[in-house]
Amino acid sequence: MMAYLAQRVLQSLGVLWAVTVITFALLYLLPADPARLVAGRSATPEVVERVRHELGLDRPILQRYLGYLGGVLQGDLGRSYLQKIQVSELLASRLVPTLELTLAGVLFELLLGIPAGILAALRRGGWLDQGIMLLSFAGVAAPQFALGLLLLYVLAYKLALFPLGGYGGWEHLVLPALALGLAGGGWYARIMRSSMLEVLSQDYVRTARAKGLAGPVVVYKHALRNALLPIVAMIGTDLGTFMGGVVVVESVFGWPGIGQLTWQAIQTVDIPVILGAVTFTALFIVLANLLADLVYPLLDPRVQYR
Amino acid sequence: MVEARTRSKAPVRNPVLRRLFSNRLALVGGVILALLALGAVFAPWLSPYSPTQTNFTALQQPPSSQHLLGTDELGRDILSRILYGARVSLVAGLVSVSLALVLGGIIGLVAGFYGGWLDNLLMRLTDAMLAFPFLVLAIALAAVLGPSLQNTLLAIGIVTTPVFARLVRGQTLAERPREYVQAALALGVGDGRMLLRHLLPNILGPLIVQVSLSTAAAVLAEATLSFLGLGIQPPTPSWGSMLNAARGYLAYAPWMAIFPGLAIFLAVLAFNLIGDGLRDALDPRLKR
């Protein structure tokens, strides 16, 4: 157990280190000169040079990387080019809305996907099954920003059931979370369906049926527990795809989270903010995956700690 | 694998293709894709108007007999822009996935075939890239490279590469101990020939499936980047940037958003359906 834990934590640290290498390398792909970006378009060459020195851009590459790495380790992701404050402060001020949206979105995904998948598996081959599978394909293929606009138009503008975007109480949260949840729900429905079908064909389920247990008891008490395991394993890996959607959906709904921050930084070419947000998201996902891997063996005793 | 089966049984038609054609959903995907491709290729002949010609006497008109899908905020014909936009979307999907296929294919073949420290190094890098969310890394790359068609393709291609590297490596590892590889090794076949003429054709099946699914993701990614203002720049029509322009006029001109959104949806759906159909056709055991 402890060995497995240590190994997984070490692995995650390795990936996080590689993440800092990739993010730092991205800065070098930048065709524009960061010093000039900070100094502004009309700055004289002397000013640009001074800014370059202040930012430490004239130091050798290895020294710069170590400085950057040291900063990241202390939670220092650099300063925004435009708003002269720390990127980490900017991120912290946007963290809560993003966490709310992420939780609500994942909840929607599961609430839509799991029952739909169970229903499809139980009605395998029937019209309900085919309908659900078609909808799940549609959900996966629907671009989240277009879906968001559609929800805004129909449910917020035409029917006036929800506010037209912005941040506030739960009624502001429903539409963006739904835009995120519809796509993921389709994905989970497909996994749940195939997982349920596989479990239902196993011997212990047949035994439970043979000893005369009622259908629903077999399905929900015996089969469901095991069929849910792949879903748990998926939530960790799915978060990566999910966070990509968060950027888009936040910008559509004017949700003041990290995604909107990223989008605003893109518009103003505020590179430290973009890279800071990317680094933070990667950290979040690595941690979520680690957590999923640690929880999984607790749920499924067949999985041995290695 | 697939080829050997075809030759030994020598049926009238390729069984993989036969299974693919008997899959209704895959067929629907194929038809949608064919229509989109025809629209893209023949856009100059099919478009009723120029995709970039502004017309200030016909701003934001709803769909009518003159403008079948309406006009946008500059009076441009939306149908014409969608037809030309299909070129951008399909080219973006195919070019970026080809890039990922070639790069990832080389990395995967080399890592899987040679093994050792090289394999370790390449796979750890791949793992690190996979730790980033696909779209977030594409956004970062595109933002850093600067907005343009080439940079969008490059960004999506690079982000898709680790997926192919992982897949090809796994398949190569599985093929390596097989007799034909060992026989070729014993015959002293050169490494390049070994990888490209012997190994590659035998792992094509799963690769084709991944190409189709990754193209769906790439088309969606291009549309998303363009929507965020990172992709193709105006006045070149792209479905994503059309939707971006539409968001300001949602209340009075919803058709500006509906049709490009529908186009993206259909293109992504088509590639997903084909990919899924191909997977079932190549591996009938998985068929439910």
Automatic annotation (TrEMBL), chain A:
Keywords: Cell membrane, Membrane, Transmembrane, Transmembrane helix, Transport. InterPro entries: BPD_transp_1_N (IPR045621), MetI-like (IPR000515), MetI-like_sf (IPR035906). The chain crosses the membrane at residues 12-30, 101-122, 134-157, 169-189, 228-253, 273-296. PROSITE patterns: ABC_TM1 (PS50928). It is a multi-pass membrane protein. The keyword S-adenosyl-L-methionine does not apply. This is Glutathione transport system permease protein GsiC. The gene is gsiC_1.
TrEMBL record, chain B:
It comes from the Bacteria. This is Glutathione transport system permease protein GsiD. It comes from Meiothermus granaticius NBRC 107808. Gene3D superfamilies: MetI-like. Belongs to the binding-protein-dependent transport system permease family. One of its GO terms (cellular component) is plasma membrane. It is found in: Cell membrane. Residues 86-275 form the ABC transmembrane type-1 domain.
